[in-house]
Amino acid sequence: MNTPGELRYSTDHEWVRVEGDAVRVGISDFAQEALGDVVFVELPEVGLEVTVNVAFAEIESTKSVSDLFAPVSGEVLESNAALEDQPELVNEDPYGEGWICVLQPSDSSQLENLMDAEGYQSFVAEESSE
């Protein structure tokens, strides 16, 4: 499982990359692997106000449909339009071209509630053994 050290992770398997005042959000390598082949991503609209731990988008794979939960509260600044025609980018490059959206956090202290790579790996190992 690929877990880049510079990212933060939620218990819902989203990752966050801090980019200045904004954060880029996607799903983890573990999550994309569990989902299987991604066939559709319902992206959040630019300007949408999202709330931490509340569903803000949806991802559909050959196995299931899953909600994506906001890792922090804030406003959607950008959505990855490339996923409309190439949802498989989530599988092929979850930490690069397969990102979901960019958020402007309304409370940057919420980032402190996210796990570092080591904590996320431990969380996944625990969750997988249950």
TrEMBL record:
InterPro entries referenced in this protein's UniProt entry, alphabetically: Biotin_lipoyl (IPR000089), GCV_H (IPR002930), GCV_H/Fam206 (IPR033753), GCV_H_sub (IPR017453), Single_hybrid_motif (IPR011053)
Entry-linked Pfam families: GCV_H (PF01597)
GO biological process, one term: protein lipoylation
A Gene Ontology term for the protein's cellular component: cytosol
Keyword set includes rRNA-binding: no
Residue ranges of domain Lipoyl-binding in the record: 22-104
Listed SUPFAM superfamilies: Single hybrid motif
Statement: the UniProt record of this protein carries the keyword Methyltransferase: no
The entry's keywords: Lipoyl
PANTHER family to which the protein is assigned, alphabetical: GLYCINE CLEAVAGE SYSTEM H PROTEIN, GLYCINE CLEAVAGE SYSTEM H PROTEIN-RELATED
Entry's family note: Belongs to the GcvH family.
HAMAP family: GcvH
Name this protein carries in UniProt: Lipoyl-binding domain-containing protein
Source organism of the structure: marine metagenome
